[in-house]
Write the structure tokens for this entry.
Amino acid sequence: MNRALEKLISLHDLDVMISDLANKDISKQEKKLGLSPDTAAKQLQKMRDELASTIDRKHRNLYDQLAGHYGNAVVPVVNQLCSGCFTQLPTAFFASPDRNDQVETCPSCGRFIYWCD
Ligand SMILES: [Zn+2]
């Protein structure tokens, strides 16, 4: 898979983890494991900043826009449907054998998309 795409997916994963930490039930779990939620949050934010700094500015700006607008900026394609907006993607997308080598966006909602199959 394209490194730029992998980074965007990782950025999204970190964002989910950061927002999960703000969730009280998950914070309790972390405490049980002997982790301070504050320390974990700081560490995650640091990792997020480091990762974000290695992402192409154009992609990062779009990611931030999408994340602000939708909450999730990077979504998988399942059964030819964008899992962000449930639009069927044009067949041209599926013709390419190296479709995960490109950073693609959904023509309907604009989210970054990737294929799992
Ligand atoms: Zn979409």
Summary: The CA atoms of residues 38 and 98 lie 41 Å apart.
